[in-house]
Design brief:
It contains nine helices and eight strands. The protein is of the alpha/beta class.
C-alpha cells in the first residue's frame, strides 16, 4: 500500500502525514476516513479499507497519524500528554483534512476508528457534530480499565523480550516512535483517570459501536457505556472475537457496517 504524503503544522514543527485514497474518482460518493489503533498505521489495515469501501460503494481515506507508519516519527524526547487523543481529534485530523482541501462542513464525513482511533473518532464526532455523517467504532476506549492497563504492561514486556519490535518494523519506519509514545502514556499513573464519558454525550450522528467479547484491552462496558450516553448508538457484540474485530471477523463486520451505512444513507437522501 504505497501512500502519498502531505504536510501540516503541528505546534512549531511541520510534520508529514502518510495517506492513501480509495476510489478517489468517485467524487459524488460518501467519504469514509479510517483512524487506526494505538500501534497501527496505514499499512497495518492491510486490505480491509478497500474491501469495506467496495461493499459500501464509497470513497476511502486511510492515514497514519504523526508518529506512526511512514509519517513523521515522534521526536525522541517527545512524551505524549494526557490529552493526546483529544489533540488528534481536535487539531491533527482537522488540519489534515484542510491540507487535503476537504471541507467537512459542506461534505459530511463518515469515520471508522479502531481502539485509540475509535476514541479519536468519538472525540471528533462530539466536537464537530455538524461535520460528521456517521461513525463506526471498533473496540473504542471511553475510560481506562484495569484490564487495559494490564494488557498494555504485557505488551511492554513483549516489546522488550520478544520479536514484537521486529514485527512492528514491518509497518512503521521507526517502531520505537509509536510503541513508546503509546505505551508510556497508557502506563503513566495519572492516565488512569482519563475518561471521555461526559464529552461523547454531544454526538449527534448515527453511531455503530463494535466490540469482541474476548477483547483483551477492554470490557463490553466500553461500548455499553457509549450507548447509555449516545442513545442512537447501535451495538454489535461479537462472540469469539478479540480486540480487532475487523481482523478476527472481517466478513461479519463488513456485513453489519454495510447494513448500518446503507440505512442511514437512505434516510439522509430522503431528508
Amino acid at each position: 500500500m504505497d501512500g502519498e504524503f502531505i504536510g501540516i503544522a503541528r505546534g512549531e514543527r511541520r510534520v508529514r502525514i502518510e495517506h492513501l485514497w480509495i476510489a478517489r474518482d468517485k467524487r459524488t460518493a460518501p467519504l469514509m476516513v479510517f483512524l487506526h489503533e494505538g500501534l497501527g498505521s496505514l499499512a497495518m489495515w492491510k486490505d480491509f479499507p478497500e474491501r469495506l469501501c467496495a461493499a459500501l460503494d464509497c470513497r476511502g481515506l486511510v492515514y497514519s497519524r504523526p508518529g506512526y507508519g511512514r509519517s513523521t516519527p515522534r521526536e525522541v524526547n517527545e512524551a505524549w500528554g494526557l490529552d493526546f487523543m483529544h489533540r488528534q481529534a481536535h487539531e491533527v485530523l482537522p488540519a489534515f483534512l484542510q491540507a487535503l482541501g476537504i471541507d467537512a462542513s459542506s461534505e459530511k464525513l463518515w469515520l471508522f476508528g479502531h481502539s485509540d482511533g475509535g476514541s479519536i473518532t468519538l472525540l471528533h464526532a462530539a466536537r464537530f457534530a455538524e461535520s460528521v455523517a456517521g461513525a463506526i467504532v471498533l473496540a473504542p476506549h471511553i475510560l481506562v480499565e484495569d484490564l487495559s492497563v494490564a494488557s498494555i504492561a504485557k505488551a511492554r514486556t513483549a516489546y522488550l523480550e520478544t520479536d514484537l519490535r521486529q514485527r512492528l518494523a514491518r509497518y512503521h519506519d521507526d517502531p520505537d516512535s509509536p510503541f513508546w509514545g503509546w505505551n508510556r502514556i497508557w502506563l503513566h499513573p495519572p492516565f488512569k483517570e482519563w475518561s471521555i464519558e461526559q464529552e461523547i454525550s454531544s454526538i449527534r450522528c448515527p453511531l455503530l459501536a463494535v466490540q469482541g467479547v474476548d477483547d483483551e484491552y477492554g470490557t463490553l462496558e466500553q461500548i455499553r457505556g457509549i450507548a447509555r450516553r449516545v442513545p442512537q448508538t447501535r451495538l454489535l457484540e461479537l462472540e469469539q472475537c478479540g480486540h480487532s474485530p475487523h481482523r478476527d471477523q472481517p466478513e461479519t463486520v463488513i456485513d453489519h457496517v454495510a447494513s448500518f451505512f446503507r440505512s442511514h444513507n437512505q434516510q439522509e437522501a430522503r431528508s
